[in-house]
Write a structure and sequence with these properties.
By secondary structure, the chain is mainly alpha-helical. Helices cover about 60% and strands about 5% of the residues. The strands form three sheets. A two-stranded parallel sheet has the order 1-2. It is globular.
């Protein structure tokens, strides 16, 4: 059946608005699926915004702790970054920007920080911040090229086999630090096991949307068990002296970046990983909403880049669009971009509570190690999920070698192993990223046999045709 007159009128109106208005005119809708350019009444909007704060909370707090950053200022800049992203994309893409895990490996390599053994935060944060700002600047250049030239080029440069390999390499590169934290002593090992089981139990058996908060709730359970064991004299007691001495309200502790060649060369390539993450998230939201959002990809890159530059300029971690919040949208079917304005405001307010940051810093080593093992493992597995969902064909040597080499390089280049080109230094994650990109582009098989095509070897799932691609004649 054809569209009704009212449906055609609404579609025409939507198209006109999209072409002639920077921000959408959010239409009120009270039930059903809420699209990005629609909104709930303000009461439910605030409640859903709070839910997104809970969804981002665990990872946004965990990443800065793994790098020795102040979690308060990381949460503060996650709110600032989300508002910046909202403004630059014109409220067209629903997303929350939280602390990026892609920076953990390179920041640890640059600063020599070990969360399991070093107390009181990372003393070399300014050096790391210089690299984070540089990564944001490189990302901004990628964004501007994408805005001017379109998004197709970056999809060709980083198809699913490349992005999946890079994500797996990130998770495996961090595995050693996770295990060392959990195994620092026998009691920490037991607490890590309790935390892992708690996270797993919540993720599998908890009702409804509570499963989306598995890391947060599992971490709380591990913390409470550790606290009770300390009170019973079974293990070391948690020290709350800093919590009691901290104020309820206060300014975030801002830090100025310091630029060094080593830090910039190691951390700046993370921009490519951030772009790959952003591509996946925009495509996921496009699929869920039924809206064509690829045309806003350049603006999404720019919003993420500017947010990372601003965060790195004052003491925050680099940020990225968050899969946790995309999952929350998938469960609730509420995609209104206005809910992220609410979430960002709440995060900014949390940044002004020093007592909250002091409480977060009391997380025991064992609990922290258990969370690291779970989260870093989930990062690695999510890379494999990219391969599966995009039907990457590993019977093709091009895909197989690209993945094999990059993943092993990322997993094996740890404990200070780097590659230097003059003054430029790359750690395992950087080497894995560039290896995957370069190998994929140069390993073009001459013939595409009938049983090999079509496959998800390219972003559109088809093999290139033309001279040099015909099968050999008998």
């Amino acid at each position: 059946m054809g569209s009704t007159k009212s449906e055609r009128t609404t579609t025409t109106s939507d198209q006109y608005e999209e072409q002639h208005s920077y921000f959408p005119h959010w239409r009120l809708k009270r039930e059903g699926v809420i699209a990005p350019d629609e909104r709930l009444p303000w009461g439910p909007t605030i409640l859903v915004g709070l839910q997104h704060v809970l969804a981002m909370f665990g990872s946004t707090v965990f990443a800065p702790l793994a790098m020795g950053f102040d979690p308060n200022i990381a949460i503060f800049f996650s709110g600032i970054g989300t508002l910046i992203f909202f403004l630059i994309v014109g409220g067209r893409i629903p997303s929350y920007l939280g602390s990026s895990f892609a920076f953990i490996g390179v920041v640890v390599a640059v600063t020599g920080y070990n969360a399991a053994t070093m107390v009181g935060g990372n003393p070399n944060i300014p050096i790391a911040l210089g690299g984070i700002v540089a990564a944001g600047a490189v990302y901004a250049v990628i964004a501007l090229i994408t805005i001017l030239a379109g998004h197709r080029w970056i999809e060709v440069l980083m198809p699913p086999v490349v992005t999946g390999s890079v994500v797996i390499a990130i998770g495996l590169n961090l595995a050693g630090s996770a295990v060392s934290g959990a195994a620092s002593n026998q009691f920490s090992g037991w607490m890590a096991a309790v935390t892992i089981l708690a996270v797993a139990g919540i993720a599998v058996y908890a009702p409804g949307s509570l499963r989306r908060l598995a890391i947060l709730v599992g971490g709380i359970i591990g913390y409470v068990v550790n606290l009770l064991c300390g009170l019973a004299g079974i293990g070391p007691a948690i020290d709350f002296s800093r919590v009691s001495s901290s104020a309820w309200i206060g300014l975030p502790h801002f830090v100025t970046p310091h630029f060094t060649g080593n830090a910039v060369s190691l951390i700046a390539p993370v921009a490519i990983i951030l772009a790959a993450e952003n591509i996946g998230h925009v495509k996921a939201v496009s699929a869920m909403t039924g809206r064509q959002l690829d045309k806003y990809l350049g603006r999404a890159f720019l919003g993420d880049a500017v947010a990372t530059i601003i965060a790195g300029s004052a003491g925050g971690t680099g940020v990225t669009t968050y899969a946790e919040n995309i999952g929350t949208m998938a469960v609730s079917r509420i995609y209104s971009t206005l809910i992220f304005v609410v979430a960002s405001i709440v995060a900014i307010l949390l940044g002004f509570c020093p007592k909250f940051g002091a409480l977060i810093s009391t997380i025991p080593t064992g609990v922290f190690g258990g969370l690291e093992i779970t989260l870093f493992g989930m990062i690695a597995v999510s890379g494999a999920r990219i391969w599966v969902e995009n039907k990457v064909d590993f019977s093709q040597s091009r895909n197989l070698i690209t993945a094999a080499v990059s993943v092993i390089l990322g997993a094996g280049m740890v404990n200070g192993i780097v590659v230097k080109f003059g003054s430029i230094t790359f750690d395992g994650i950087g080497v894995a990223t560039f290896s995957a990109i370069i190998l994929y582009q140069i390993l073009r098989e001459r013939y595409s046999l009938p049983e090999e095509a079509p496959v998800a070897d390219s972003p559109v799932g088809i093999q290139p045709t033309g001279e040099g691609n015909d099968p050999p004649k008998a």
